[in-house]
Specification:
Blueprint lengths: L7 H6 L2 H14 L3 E5 L2 E8 H10 L6 H13 L3 E3 L12 E4 L8 E2 L19 H11 L2 H4 L1 H4 L5 H10 L4 E2 L6 E2 L1 E4 L3 H12 L4 E5 L5 H5 L2 H18 L16 H16 L4 H8 L2 E4 L3 E4 L2 E4 L2 E5 L2
Bound molecules: flavin-adenine dinucleotide (FAD).
């Protein structure tokens, strides 16, 4: 959520002790319960419109506009959040959740990402030896995982990893019994878990490597990028058939072809991003190897996850 600026009047009116006092009152008086929207259940939340009415009735705000601004101010103080964390506070039937009712939804536990750890202070990419050194420090995944060993960590691939294999990932707190757990974040796992989530189910994905699976990383997407370059070369070589004269030799710059592929893959990787799965669909994402430990239980990174399907 972007940083917002508030009028000095609001900042002065609500010092931290006042925020804490009003927040305690809110928690007691605002109705919190499980709610459903388009078949999807949102646990322990309240409705934005109700908080606006409450703020006016309690004389904390004079107008609806004041109340919305105060609500937004409390949100930036982490008293509560929109259930999907993607809305500023609004006088609408949107759902919000007090911070203490939030379950850990997973995420990177540091501000590091695949860009800043592999760059020096001037923003230049580290040498391969320096990169190997950094990678050996951050987790055991790069050593175990051949996909990363072979990956050329340029800006495009680092974008892809930031979306599909964020650094220092911490798995979510399990959300009770899942209706469906997909092993693998490839096309199959993505489509089935999104389907389960938008039908109102509790869904999780476990991916041991890079989200997107074959289709994004090595199959559909890269192959189509190469096919396009090949078609362009073929068309230019046979341009005279179309009445177009091209002089000189047509050469393939393979490094450029590869770079274009990595760029396209990075752009598309946003669709398979772990953050999109969490924020847009409420799917829990675990990054590790799944192992069945029972008919209805899977273990990942030492955690036991229960599922019904
Ligand atoms: C060159 C090429 C071009 C292609 N072009 C097209 C196309 O144009 N159109 C099309 O429809 N299809 C295309 N395909 C096929 C498409 O890529 C596959 O059908 C699709 O990727 C299969 O998806 P999936 O989810 O079943 O498996 P995958 O994509 O293989 O995903 C499986 C995922 O599961 C993970 N995984 C495996 N075991 C575990 C475990 N125990 N724990 C955690 N994670 C695990 C893997 O790391 C992987 O990410 C192409 C394939 C190739 C090779």
């Amino acid at each position: 959520m972007e940083d917002r600026e508030f009028p000095q009047e609001i900042i002065d009116k609500f010092p931290q002790e006042e925020i804490d006092r009003i927040a305690a009152e809110m928690r007691e008086e605002i109705e919190v319960k499980d709610r459903t929207h388009y078949f999807k259940k949102y646990e322990s939340c309240f409705v934005g419109k109700k908080l606006v009415i409450w703020l006016i009735e309690k004389n904390y705000a004079e107008t609806v506009e004041d109340a919305v601004q105060i609500g937004d101010f409390f949100m930036t103080k982490n008293i509560f959040h929109h259930v999907l964390r993607d809305h500023a506070f609004k006088n609408k039937n949107l759902y919000y959740r007090f911070e203490e009712h939030e379950r850990n939804r997973g995420g990177s536990d540091t501000n590091d990402n695949w860009h800043n750890i592999l760059e020096d202070r001037d923003g230049d990419l580290l040498t391969p030896e320096e990169q190997a050194d950094v990678l050996s420090d951050i987790s055991d995944w790069p050593q175990k995982n051949s996909a990363l060993h072979d990956l050329f960590l340029d800006g495009h691939n680092r974008d892809t990893l930031n979306h599909c294999r964020p650094l220092n990932w911490v798995d979510p707190e399990a959300d009770g019994v899942y209706d469906m757990i997909a092993i693998g974040g490839g096309a199959g796992g993505l489509v089935s878990s999104i389907g389960a989530a938008i039908s109102g189910g509790k869904a999780a994905i476990i991916e041991k490597n890079i989200m997107g699976g074959d289709c994004l990383n090595t199959g559909c997407v890269p192959s189509k990028a190469f096919i396009k370059s090949a078609k362009v070369a073929h068309t230019v070589r046979h341009a005279s058939q179309y009445g177009v004269e091209v002089s000189g030799e047509v050469k393939i710059n393979f490094a450029k072809v590869m770079e274009r592929m990595r760029k396209i893959r990075a752009e598309i990787s946003e669709h398979d991003s772990v953050y999109k799965l969490i924020k847009k669909y409420g799917i829990d994402v675990y990054l590790g190897e799944a192992v069945f430990t029972d008919k209805k239980e899977i273990s990942v990174n030492g955690k036991a996850l229960q599922f019904s399907k």
